[in-house]
Design a protein that fits this description.
The structure holds two protein chains of two kinds. By secondary structure, chain A is α/β, with parallel strands linked by helices. Chain A is 37% helix and 29% strand. The longest helix of chain A is centred in the last third of the chain and has 18 residues, at 174-191. Chain B is an alpha+beta fold. The longest helix of chain B has 44 residues, at 376-419. Bound molecules: adenosine-5'-diphosphate (ADP) and magnesium ion.
Chain lengths: 223, 487
């Protein structure tokens, strides 16, 4: 198990009442597999992903990375060394070029980075489908699909085994969506990564190795 | 792409914001720089004048405190004894010290120097033109401190001082007038008169000769030097004449003449005789003078000496006299202090707000760094680099323009000061020496310049101010929540 959630509870206080977004959620993920978490808007998908990526902490319960509590690893350290996060709205730095955006996490992580980081970044972008001429453009001069590819390259730049994505194709048309999903499949099946994608799209869920369904704060297997 | 590189990219990639920040810092920097320039200039004046005042100190009765005492209480006041003077003289702050006593004597055989006032002075009663100035410090402190300069012969030996040998150093002018040379002797009269209250006449009771051998000649150094174009020099002439007729001798000579004088006088006046009997130290009154190693020692010296002194005595530093002539300088210094304070506060607020506004625009970017696991301290570091690099440029530019501005403003203020007709000259008296400084001297030594201490002072204050102004924005960064920003 590369990632495991145990009895996660996440609620907010509404007057006297506790409103649970996640209730006693437990789930585990393996390397080399492409997972999806399916749920309607407002069902708590982003909340779950923020807990798995240590951008937020649960009210109770633990997240284990390689059997170790991420709280013990340290949230910041876990984020910079162990996980790559992809957002629905890309979240690239607009004043930087594509390749500069990919270089940012490489300078933050403590993982080993080859000395010619820039070459590695160009190669990574090329592999994801961004050629060199586009890699040197400022990211706001790229299309949505291209921007999300840059974001995927950025998530991979630190050589992590765990990729978390929150509705990564939500802003893309169907053709682009499929290209991104193909990349995720390739990363899981050819490169042995654990890819977890949150989505409200049935088509994507059907392509995953395993899909979960989130409803009323409860996570279940989805067939 | 680490935080340092990102900081520099933040400057070059957002030129508009960089220029706005630069303009803000430059304008406020001019205010700070101007104020610091004026501060430095006034500070220099103070140091300069105090340097000229020298590091002298003496012990004086606190005349204000003593004023209300009854006559009996007056008599209770202790003299400062030689032992105490020597004890204080041993302190590490003291370069050299002396104590002296003086007596005025007349002469039948030599003529005093009268300068330009020759023939203008009408004597009424006996003349006492010669000031016998006793010393204990054989090389003569007045020469070391360049009040006078030995131009012929030699100074005293310690032996002559200790034994009270009848040797003297007189001024060259006095020697010339009486055709005296080193090795010659001359005679002064210690004459005791009785004052008749009815007739107002003075009657000679007795007199004895004081025969002194000339061992050296001196020339005054400072008093008349710079005063050529000064029409109203009567006061200075008088000071000069007094000094030209001063005769340096060992303390013991003066003490012995004093003793003779009052003993003879006591024979005439019983009341006085009684008073003298009660106070056997009455002739042992010495004026002490301490010259310190450095003007900076003045305060420490004063602190250490004050507890040793008998009641009603104070340490008086030459420095203390500075305040009495610093008038226009003070108002300038005060004004610049306020300008500096206001400029610093304005800079902190305005720069802080400008930086905060820029950061709010960039919270997305900062949230991304945090989501990628960047340490908050490095995000803070990146912003500090972005602000401080621009600040250094802005401050460096205003370093020169602000200094220039301060020079112009000061010139204008000085002119305004000059035009006021109440242009006054004040002389400083210290102990029994007069220090030759005027308000004009103070104004003359004021100069706004680009010196090292100004540059360091301004960079220090300027950069510190900008640094403080980034505190508000930094709190903002530390509180950022990447989940809320990005998800
Ligand atoms: N602090 C909060 N206070 C009130 N409601 C919240 C808070 N945090 C999340 N929610 C609500 O929890 C629900 C789950 O949100 P989210 O995890 O973003 O769902 P999804 O990503 O599946 O659309 C939403 O209805 C959201 O409005
Ligand atoms: Mg969501």
């Amino acid at each position: 198990m590369i990632l495991e959630a145990k009895d996660l509870n996440y609620y907010y206080q509404d007057g006297e009442e506790r409103r649970y977004i996640l209730k006693d959620t437990s789930v585990s993920f393996e390397k080399g597999k492409f997972y999806t978490i399916l749920g309607q808007s407002g069902s708590g998908k982003t909340t779950l992903l923020s807990l798995l990526s240590a951008l937020d902490s649960p009210n109770s319960g633990t997240v284990l990375f390689n059997e170790e509590d991420i709280k013990k690893i340290g949230y910041e350290k876990y984020r910079r060394n162990n996980v790559g996060i992809i957002f629905q709205s890309y979240n690239l730095i607009p004043t930087f070029t594509a390749v500069e955006n990919v270089l940012v996490p490489m300078s933050i992580t403590e993982n080993e980075i080859p000395e010619d980081a820039k070459t590695v970044a160009y190669n990574l972008l090329d592999y994801i489908g961004i050629v060199k001429s586009k890699a040197d453009r400022f990211v706001n001069k790229l299309s949505g699909g291209e921007q999300q590819r840059v974001a995927v390259a950025r998530a991979l730049a630190t050589n992590v085994e765990l990729i978390l994505a929150d509705e990564p194709t939500g802003n893309l048309d169907e053709e682009m969506e499929q290209e991104i999903i193909d990349i995720f499949k390739k990363l899981a099946h050819e490169h042995g990564k654990c890819v977890i994608v949150v989505t409200h799209s049935n088509e994507i869920a059907l392509q995953s190795d395993q899909a979960f369904h989130l409803r009323k704060g409860v996570l279940s297997s989805y067939e | 792409m680490n935080f340092i590189k990102r900081g520099f990219l933040g400057i070059t990639r957002k030129k508009g914001k960089t220029l706005i920040l630069l303009a803000v810092i430059f304008i406020l920097g001019n205010l700070i720089s101007g104020a610091v320039s004026i501060q430095q200039a006034t500070g220099n004046v103070e140091a300069n004048i105090k340097e000229r005042l020298g590091a002298a100190a003496t012990l004086e009765l606190d005349y204000e405190a003593v004023e209300d005492l009854s006559e009996a209480e007056w008599l209770e006041i202790e003299n400062i004894g030689v032992d105490l003077i020597k004890q204080i003289g041993e302190l590490s702050y003291v370069k050299y010290f002396d104590y002296s006593t003086s007596i005025y004597l007349g002469s039948e055989s030599i003529e005093s120097y009268q300068g330009d006032m020759e023939g203008e002075i009408f004597h009424s009663g006996p003349s006492m033109d010669y000031k016998l100035n006793g010393i204990n410090y054989a090389p003569v402190i007045d020469f070391e401190e360049e009040k006078g300069k030995l131009i012929d012969g030699r100074v005293f030996t310690q032996e002559e001082v200790d034994n009270g040998t009848s040797v003297a150093i007189i001024s060259k002018k006095l020697a010339e007038k009486n055709d005296l040379h080193v090795g010659d002797t001359f005679t002064l009269d210690n004459a005791v008169y009785d004052y008749d209250e009815e007739t107002g006449e003075e009657e000679l009771i007795t007199s004895r000769d004081v025969v002194l051998e000339v061992i050296g000649l001196f020339e005054p150094q400072s008093v008349k030097e710079q005063q050529e174009d000064n029409a109203d020099s009567g006061m200075l002439d008088w000071m000069d004449i007094e000094y030209q007729n001063t005769v340096y001798v060992p303390n013991e000579i003066v003490a012995s003449e004093n003793r003779y004088h009052w003993e003879e006088y006591s024979k005439m006046d019983e009341e006085f005789a009684k008073m003298m009997e009660e106070d056997e130290n009455a002739f042992e009154y010495f004026m002490p003078m301490f010259f310190l190693n450095s003007p900076e020692d003045s305060e420490a010296f004063e602190e250490e000496v004050a507890p040793l002194l008998p009641e009603f005595y104070n340490v008086v530093n030459a420095m203390d006299q500075y305040d009495s002539i610093a008038g226009p300088m003070e108002s300038m210094s005060k004004l610049s202090k306020y300008v500096l304070l206001v400029a610093v506060i304005a800079t902190v607020l305005i720069t802080g707000l400008v930086v905060l506004l820029f950061l709010r625009d960039r919270k997305h970017e900062l949230g991304i760094y945090l989501s990628l696991g960047e340490r908050r301290s490095r995000v803070v570091g990146q912003i500090l680099i972005e602000v401080m690099v621009v600040a250094v440029i802005g401050i460096t530019l205003s370093l020169f323009s602000g200094n220039l501005l301060a020079g112009q403003v000061s010139d204008m203020m000085m002119k305004a000061n000059d035009n006021q007709d109440e242009y006054y000259e004040e002389y400083i008296y210290f102990g029994d020496t007069q220090i030759d400084l005027t308000t004009e001297d103070v104004l003359d030594s004021y100069e706004v310049s680009l010196n090292l201490s100004y540059i360091l002072g301004f960079y220090g204050i300027g950069l510190l101010t900008i640094l403080i102004s980034t505190v508000i924005p930094l709190i903002y960064i530390v509180r950022l929540n990447p989940k809320k920003i990005l998800m």
